[in-house]
Structures are given as structure tokens and as C-alpha cells.
């Protein structure tokens, strides 16, 4: 399984017991969807390795407590600390038409109601307080906040996102 075929589910953040149990910080608004999984992929030395789950349960609502098969000691658990967990893309829950996963919209065209064609989404920057569309316009990078007030329409069929940005925002990036 390649990383491109998967989505990031969360990260192993803590050991829970001396029997190899681990706590996973899930990267989701709906952790309960992932409470009864049979297996996950764990990134081990840049490879995705399948691990089977003996038992799992939500722990303090935001963490998932997992006992993996063949992880039976603190040493086994230590070897997995800070590793990322992944699931195949087909396990992502379907979203309503106006909602999207970040990976889905790479390559979408962005059009602004006033400005017109802005460019193509090349990535999403979610390292800041406000996630940003990173848009390529003929080699010029334009950043638009992924703000509900700015996003007018998501047309998944035609791979277009219509935005309504404050006057002058896009021009800031185009002035010489």
C-alpha cells in the first residue's frame, strides 16, 4: 500500500500500559467512526506496515486506545511511538456536496466571483491557524484562506471551487 493511496488517521502519542497498549491522537472531528477497526497501516521507516487490532476504545473522547496483535511489551510499543497511522482512501466517510477532504481538491480550478479565473490548487497549507488554498496562477503562488465566508460553491463534478474574496486580496499577489 502506497501513502498516496491512504489518508492520515492519526499519530501514536503515548503508551497506555506495560502490555503494549498505545494511545492514538486521531486527526478527525468524528473519532467514534474509527473505534472498531480491524487493522491500520503504521508508518515504520517510511514504509506502511499493516497492523491488526486486538481491541480498541475511545479514551477521554479525543484519543483512541489500541492494543495491536503482537505488540505485547513496552519495548514493542516504544518502537512505534510517534508513528503515523493510515487507512486506505476508500475508508474515508462520504461528505456532503459542499464539504471536501483536502486531498480531494488538489488540481481543482479556483474562480473568484469578481476577479475571474484565479488558478489551480496545488496544495493546502494547514500549518497556520487558518488553512490556506495554495493556488498556482502561471507560476505565481496565490494564497486564499479556506474560510466558509469566502467559499461560495464547491462543484465536485467539474472540479471547480467558486470563491468570493475581499476586494484586492488576489491583486496583492499579482502586483509587480
CATH topology value of the largest domain: Elongation Factor Tu (Ef-tu), domain 3
**Shape estimate:** elongated
CATH architecture of the largest domain: Beta Barrel
- Could you state the CATH homologous superfamily of the largest domain? RimM
H/E series = EEEEEHEEEEEEEH
Query: Poorly predicted ranges (pLDDT <50, ≥5 residues)?
Result: none
Q: What radius of gyration results from the CA coordinates?
A: 20 Å
Q: For the terminal residues, how far apart are their CA atoms?
A: 45 Å
How many helices? The count is 2
Number of domain units:
2
For the record, the CATH class of the largest domain is: Mainly Beta
Outline of the structure:
This protein is mainly β.
Describe this structure in words.
The protein has 176 residues and is mainly beta. It has 2 domains: 3-91, RimM (Elongation Factor Tu (Ef-tu), domain 3, Beta Barrel); 102-174, Roll (SH3 type barrels), CATH 2.30.30.240. It contains 2 helices and 12 strands; from the N terminus they run βββββαβββββββα. The protein has helices at residues 74-80, 171-174, and strands spanning 6-15, 22-26, 39-44, 47-59, 63-68, 84-88, 109-112, 116-125, 132-137, 140-145, 151-155, 160-163. It has a 6-stranded antiparallel barrel with strand order 1-2-5-4-3-6. The longest helix is centred in the middle third of the chain and has 7 residues, at 74-80. The protein is elongated.
Amino acid at each position: 500500500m502506497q501513502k498516496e493511496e491512504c489518508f492520515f488517521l492519526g499519530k501514536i502519542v503515548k503508551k497506555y500500559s506495560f502490555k503494549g497498549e498505545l494511545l492514538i491522537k486521531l486527526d478527525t472531528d468524528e473519532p467514534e467512526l474509527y473505534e472498531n477497526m480491524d487493522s491500520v497501516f503504521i508508518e515504520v521507516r517510511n514504509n506502511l506496515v499493516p497492523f491488526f487490532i486486538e481491541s480498541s476504545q475511545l479514551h477521554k473522547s479525543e484519543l483512541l486506545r489500541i492494543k495491536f496483535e503482537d505488540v505485547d511489551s513496552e519495548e514493542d510499543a516504544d518502537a512505534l511511538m510517534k508513528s503515523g497511522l493510515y487507512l486506505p482512501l476508500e475508508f474515508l466517510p462520504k461528505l456532503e456536496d459542499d464539504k471536501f477532504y483536502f486531498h480531494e481538491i488538489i488540481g481543482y480550478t479556483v474562480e473568484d466571483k469578481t476577479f475571474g479565473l484565479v488558478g489551480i490548487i496545488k496544495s493546502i497549507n494547514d500549518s497556520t491557524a487558518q488553512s490556506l488554498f495554495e493556488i498556482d496562477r502561471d507560476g505565481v503562488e496565490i494564497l486564499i484562506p479556506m474560510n466558509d465566508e469566502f467559499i461560495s460553491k464547491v462543484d465536485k463534478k467539474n472540479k471547480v471551487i467558486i470563491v468570493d474574496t475581499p476586494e484586492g486580496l488576489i491583486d496583492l499577489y499579482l502586483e509587480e
